[in-house]
């Protein structure tokens, strides 16, 4: 097995990448383990790198060392190769995907990683992109899209930019008119503040939007929140963050939560869509669950939350 570590030097502001690289070298140097460290040079670089490494048909694990965006790039490249599996060493800002596992601190343990096993996990196919975590539209996706407007302001950090962008979007018109079709046979429509099609349960640095989602249950969890007043949003955001919004009496008339295999979202205007935190624009979006489509490297001692993972063939 080849172990290839793909490090995004800008993820999480580059705080822990050099420590990860030195841990990899001190553990694996002079051992009979074939390994390599690669630093991405630009957004999208991981894809061509994975392609180049997969011309060799021997089994390989690509460890995405970064946040969910780096993982998203690596899975979308590796999904084309049956001899490739994907792991993650979290060093991004949010790292929401690893929250779907028990003992997730072990993702940072190189020894646990190289002695791990490959398991099958689900992914969502959103148009031609694979998502391992959460696809979201609405107010918070718009905030992610508008962050660039604040990045040029001196002395503002990444989270400062996001807060400014959230305030900017709060002042603009809220609510998107959408029609949502689940499994081709259940339709709901209205004006929504936000909506998610989720494989994992969390996004946005810890918002537990789909508290019932499991990454190997063969279904998509859908959660749509109707438009509400700005005042009400401020009072209820905490409940959405900690995943208690499904039990919150004050929210019960505002939320549609379902499990399904396909989702179609139809809008009159173009919609900003975040797929694992990466930005796309669509008018009509189709999602489908692709069960057991990801060969995932599970570090030793880590288990998938909720149900027992199957071993890959
Ligand atoms: N060398 C690079 N220079 C600039 N951008 C890069 C480079 N390598 C990868 N990227 C891009 O950096 C972006 C951010 O990466 P990532 O999402 O992993 O980190 P993060 O935003 O800190 O973490 P999280 O998504 O968990 O909050 C991704 O869109 C990725 O494609």
Give the tags.
9-stranded antiparallel beta sheet; 313 residues; Tumour Suppressor Smad4; phospholipid metabolism; binds adenosine-5'-triphosphate; Rossmann fold; 2 domains; lipid biosynthesis; alpha+beta; 15 strands; 4-stranded parallel beta sheet
Structural write-up:
The chain is α+β, with helices and mostly antiparallel strands. The protein folds into two domains: 2-126 and 292-304, Rossmann fold (3-Layer(aba) Sandwich), CATH 3.40.50.10330; 131-289, Tumour Suppressor Smad4 (Sandwich). The protein is 23% helix and 37% strand. The protein has helices spanning 17-28, 45-53, 68-78, 110-114, 139-146, 158-171, 230-242, and strands spanning 2-7, 34-39, 60-66, 84-90, 101-102, 117-126, 129-131, 134-138, 176-182, 186-198, 220-226, 255-260, 262-275, 278-298, 303-304. The strands form three sheets. Strands 6, 7, 8, 9, 10, 11, 12, 13 and 14 form a nine-stranded antiparallel beta sheet that branches. A four-stranded parallel beta sheet has the order 2-1-3-4. The chain binds adenosine-5'-triphosphate. Adenosine-5'-triphosphate (ATP) is lined by residues 8-12, 40-43, 45, 66-70, 73, 92-95, 277-278. One of its GO terms (biological process) is phospholipid biosynthetic process. Pfam families: DAGK_cat, YegS_C. Keywords: ATP-binding, Kinase, Lipid biosynthesis, Lipid metabolism, Magnesium, Metal-binding, Nucleotide-binding, Phospholipid biosynthesis, Phospholipid metabolism, Transferase.
